[in-house]
Amino acid sequence: MATSSLALHNVSCFSAEHVNAGTPRIQSSRAAGVFLSVKSSQSVPLNSFCGLKSVGACTSTNLHLEGDSLALLRSPPGGVRDLERMFTPGQARAAAYKVAVLGAAGGIGQPLSLLIKMSPLVSDLHLYDIANVKGVVADLSHCNTPAKVAAFTGAGELAAALKDVDVVVIPAGVPRKPGMTRDDLFNINAGIVRTLIEAVADNCPNAMINIISNPVNSTVPIAAEVLKAKGVYDPSKLFGVTTLDVVRANTFVAEKKNLRLIDVDVPVIGGHAGITILPLLSKTRPTVDFTPEEIEELTVRIQNAGTEVVEAKAGAGSATLSMAYAAARFAESCMRALDGDPDVYECAYVQSEVTELPFFATRVKLGKKGLEAIVSGDLTGLTDYEQNALEALKSELKGSIEKGVSFASNGATVAV
């Protein structure tokens, strides 16, 4: 029976050269497919893909269906232990992880919550916002996927929303409007993130934290400082979600070069705003030749893609749908890593030593304990264009990081 699942996506294939001290850094990894659970203890390897994928060619039964497959999950022979043995690491098991989305009633939060609800790895989906979240939950609860959805409204219910969750995704904050830069959002969103991270520290300090709220270049350092002050900071659990930059880079390159999107993988490093976004087109897989004009055109478009959407929506919103898609992909990668998949790679903005900056976006390997390794090799063998762009972005990224750290030390907490 042919089915579709939005829980399936790629791991990147790449090469690098040096392993350094501190956070492990990877040289290479084989590309690997994701496995889809079927009626028996067998697994079906799927081709790797850069992003969430609707799989129409798969002839197995996935975990979203009613009938035999769910009956198997509800009544496994020999009980839960036998069920666990049926699913090998790297295979999508029955709903196992609790996810909280903070800011779930917003333009990003609603489609993001829908996509996460579709994952067979999610057992409980906690949706939090300051208002209007009960309607979102009522709507999502009608979707016949395994995750149980619950609504939490206002500061008084924030602790309950976060209690013992495995992955926290934070899209909370105000969206960009025409003429606004990400730094224009800072004063409002920085306070929101600070307050939410304080609650994360108190209620689920071991969760993998996915920060979407812009400006990510500053909000991730804010989160780090708050977690440090609470005595629970683990740099392997804190991620700025830059996946949208990768998604855009892959899409734009595939369109420009008439390639199958399923084959394209472009690493994006630096940060998540303007010139700090640096697509490494020379590292594109498959190998592609670009003219200098194409490199400039693609780089600028990828850097300004958010503005492209804001202007196209003419004041009616920002890049909510594509951001939700990218965030769902990263959240799914976190759950796959927690579930034991040995080949989970994404680009993310993390505490890093690959440059002199304390935070930097590169490819990372995710594992059961969060960030397992940073891929340093993408920064070797850069073209002159990329090397110059890398040097140019550092001062702006440094300023954004320092701004976040300063706010965390002095900024006021806001109601969320």
TrEMBL record:
Record-annotated Lactate/malate dehydrogenase N-terminal domain positions? 98-240
Enzyme Commission identifier(s): 1.1.1.37
What are the UniProt keywords, alphabetically? NAD, Oxidoreductase, Tricarboxylic acid cycle
Name the Pfam families for this protein.
Ldh_1_C (PF02866), Ldh_1_N (PF00056)
Top EC class of this enzyme? oxidoreductase
CDD domains in the record:
MDH_glyoxysomal_mitochondrial (cd01337)
Q: Which SUPFAM superfamilies match?
A: LDH C-terminal domain-like (SSF56327), NAD(P)-binding Rossmann-fold domains (SSF51735)
**Ranges for domain Lactate/malate dehydrogenase C-terminal:** 242-407
- Where does the sequence pass through the membrane? none
Q: Can you state the subunit structure given in the record?
A: Homodimer.
What family is this protein classified in? Belongs to the LDH/MDH superfamily. MDH type 1 family.
Name the UniProt record assigns to this protein: malate dehydrogenase
Q: What organism is the protein native to? A: Sphagnum troendelagicum
